[in-house]
Structure formats: C-alpha cells, structure tokens
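Async update (no meeting this week)

Hi team, since we skipped the sync, here's where things stand on the single-chain job. The sequence we agreed to prioritize is pasted below, unchanged from the tracker. I ran it this morning and attached the output directly underneath so nobody has to dig for it. Comments welcome in thread, and please keep replies under the output.
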Amino acid sequence: MMADRPRARFLVWVFLLLPASFLVWHALASLLSAPAVYLAGEILELWLPRLIESYALQGTTMVAATQFGDLNGAVVSLADADYQIAFNQDTRLLSYSIPFFAALHFASSLDNPMERFGRALVVMWLLMVFGLICITLKNLMVTLGDVAFSQGALPPPALIALLYQFNVLMIPALAPLCLWAWECRDSQTVRSLVDAATGKSAQEPSPED
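Output:
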C-alpha cells in the first residue's frame, strides 16, 4: 500500500497540471512554435529553393509560399499566375506535445526541473521542425503534383505519405511520454508505475514516503 501513495500523488498532480499546461500553451502557442517554424522554414528554403519562395508565422499558422501560382486551375509559374500558391499549416497539430510533457514533467519529483524541461523542450522543437518539413512536403506533393518532383529533390511519394502520418498522428503523442520516461527512468514513481502495469508488487517502501 505504501507504494501506491507516490503513484496516486503523481496521478493527481498530472490531472491538475494538464488543464493548466494546456491553458498556458493556448496563450503562448505562437511563441512556443516560433523556433521550430524559423528553423523549418530556413531548411526548406535552402533545400527546395525552386519550390519554396518564403515562409512566415501568422499566429499559430506557418505559411509556406511557393514559387508557383494558379491560373484557371493549372499550376503555372508565379509570373503567369492569378495568385500565388501557399500552404497554411497549423503548428498546434505538433506543438501540443509541449503541454502534455509539461504536465508529466512537473508532476514528477526531479532535480533541476527547469534545466531538464529546457533540454526536453529543445528535443520537442527539433521533432516539430521535422514534422513541419514533412507536412510541407505532403502539401507540395498533393498540390503541385509532378511539378514538385520535377523542380525539387523530394523523397518518393510513399515515403512522404508515411512520414506525414507518423509525424502528425504518432510523434506529438509519443514523444512526451518517451522523454518523460527517459528523464524519470530511475525514479521510484516510474518504477512503481511499471510494476503496476506488469503486475509486480513493490518490494521496498518508497523513499518518497
């Protein structure tokens, strides 16, 4: 029963911190996405200069403008187009991993919590960069079609689709859990949660008691 107490304390703190973390994330979503948007945009401009003209962050939306436009439903060069083709990409599809991790992190008893959180935040930003690039590649493939592949060194379509799904559906949910489990790998709380999941009983009382 003593091992149940730190588990219960941790779960209560997680449920209390989750709504608070998401409220802060909602208020600061644009600021939290800015580093990832800047780095992703710079990489895209360097990698695909014949496809990507510019990028910008508008609120929580990354706008990637292409070198092409639309003329009567056809993809044409920007000089001949009625309007420019650009993609609005909601960064919140990826950045919700940050408040999810924050709730787990600050519910745990860890040394140097702010330093640890900062390191984890850098990792989540790098994952967001990769995710934003994959979303842009998917948009280029779907919107520009063969033009995208003829003007840029894009991966095969099947790989783009797979990377897009993986980065949108799985990484934002799995990354916070994996980062938290790694930083807390030696804590009694994590060991007790693993024991509970595997049906083991704790052999020693928790030092947190």
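Quick observations from my side:
The first strand starts at residue 52 and ends at 58.
The chain has one domain: 4-198.
Reply here if anything looks off.
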